[in-house]
Amino acid sequence: xxxxxxxxxxxxxxxxxxxxxxxxxxxxxxxxxxxxxxxxxxxxxxxxxxxxxxxxxxxxxxxxxxxxxxxxxxxxxxxxxxxxxxxxxxxxxxxxxxxxxxxxxxxxxxxxxxxxxxxxxxxxxxxxxx
Length: 130
Description:
The protein is mostly helical. It is built from four helices and no strands. It has helices at residues 2-35, 42-78, 87-119, 124-127.
C-alpha cells in the first residue's frame, strides 16, 4: 500500500512540474510571437521558426508525460485491491517516467537559454509598429 501512495505522490509531483514547464513554454511562445518582424532577414526568421517548432515539440512531449501519468493512475485505481502489482515493475516504470521528464526539462532549459541569448540585443520587437 505504501508503494502505491508514494507512487501517487510521485505522479502528483511530476504532473505539477510538467504543468509548470508547459506554462513557461507558453510564455516563451508569446515572447517569440512578438519577435517576428517584416524587417528581419530570412536567417533570423528561420531561427525563430526553429525555436517555435522545438517549443511545440516540447509541449507535445510533456503532454505525453501527462498522458502516461494519467494511464498509470487509472491502472493503479483499477488494480487498487489487487495486490499482485510487482514493486520492481512499478519502480522501473517510475524511473522511466522520471528520466523522460528530466530529459524534456533539460532540453527545454537549454532551448530557453539559447532563446534568451538570441533575444539579448535583438531589437526586432522594437522595430515593430504597434
